[in-house]
Amino acid sequence: MSFPVVVPSVRQSVLPAWIGPTFAAVVVQAALMAVYLARFGGDPSALVCVRQDTVGKFPFEYVRTSLSEEGFDGQFYYAIARDPWHKQDERAIVLPGYRHQRILYPALGWLLSGGDGKKLLWALPAVNLMAFGALAGLGAVFATRFGRNPWWGFFLPLMVNAGTPALRDLTDPLATLALFGLLATFICRGSAIALMAWAAAAAFSREQNVLIIGMIGASLLLQRRWLAVGALALVLAAWGGWLWRLREMYGYWPFAGDNLAAPFAGMWYRLQHLRGDEAARAAPIHAVGLICILAQVGVCLIMPMWRAEKVVALTALAGAALAVCGGPAIYMSGHSYMRVFAMMPLGIWLWNVHSGRTWPALLLSPALLWPCYALFQVWRH
């Protein structure tokens, strides 16, 4: 009597398509941060970007490096992350109520560090690194959902310039991730719970994102998706409650009015100040930046004519409106205006992938210059 020979089947383990783009994005951003910190002997406190006269003083007693006389906004989020649940010291933070409303980033830093000043030096960059990688991973998943190559996800955080603000402990990578998650979930008709989670992350990471939450809520209302509408309404109510709490805490509504101005006033200011100050040395990068923004504004204006998804088109147009009406305070630094209008390149990327087109990505590709510019700038000094 013979027995059949059973040959065990060999299953090839295939990694999910998003693994490669995510891993590559994290490696690229980690390498960028490593090269940046190498200029300071590996000192992570350089990423806090405090002003010179506060180095070594509370709440920056563990900071040993300053990049400039005035510093950057990352110093404020570091200070908030030391104790994000109480009123902040106006001597350490400019417009503390305005900074405090963007609670998600410092709160995550606090959760990772317990508010310990030394641990926080690593916790805040870690949050931004994870946000950068998550943006690439979610972008890859979204791209494959619509039949595109998953490596479109790798380029997403680069094209929206999410890497450069991570070198200054800023909230942008996390805020952009939350907004992308919200938009992608809406486009893919995700659950009300998923929409609520992403909407909460978006609202509590940057106030401009609330505009997009409202747009999505209006669209869901027209679709009669009542559960999803209710979920977003709860998020907006919670956000409003947080604003009221800050109003009671600081005595003013937590907004900054000098970020907006008459149309093109900020761009005109930038053009007028390319000579006679330190910006003259950065004139080429400013020229490229302004040209990129104007080109993106042009694309945003034609997107509705090319039958872009309505909320995506409105997101891009909202970013374009902010770019056009951005005040001199935004256009002061080349590291500002190429990151604060993330809704515009994000909307273009979504349209690019969702519609099957490729050419719009060419208009976003110059954003790859900004991490290189950041490295050049810090190693030049």
**What is the chain-wise order of helices and strands?**
HEEHHHHHHHHHHHHHHHH
Give the strand line-up of the largest sheet: 1-2
Main pleated sheet = 2 strands, parallel
Specify Rg, calculated over alpha carbons. Answer: 22 Å
Count every helix, treating DSSP H or I runs of 4 or more residues as helices.
17
Short description, anyone?
By secondary structure, this protein is mainly α. Helix content is 59%, strand content 1%.
Explain what this protein looks like in three dimensions.
With 381 residues, the protein is mainly α. It has a domain of 118 residues. It has 17 helices and two strands. Strands 1-2 form a two-stranded parallel sheet. Helix 1 packs antiparallel against helix 5, helix 5 packs across helix 6 and helix 12 packs across helix 15. The chain is globular, with a radius of gyration of 22 Å. The N terminus is likely disordered.
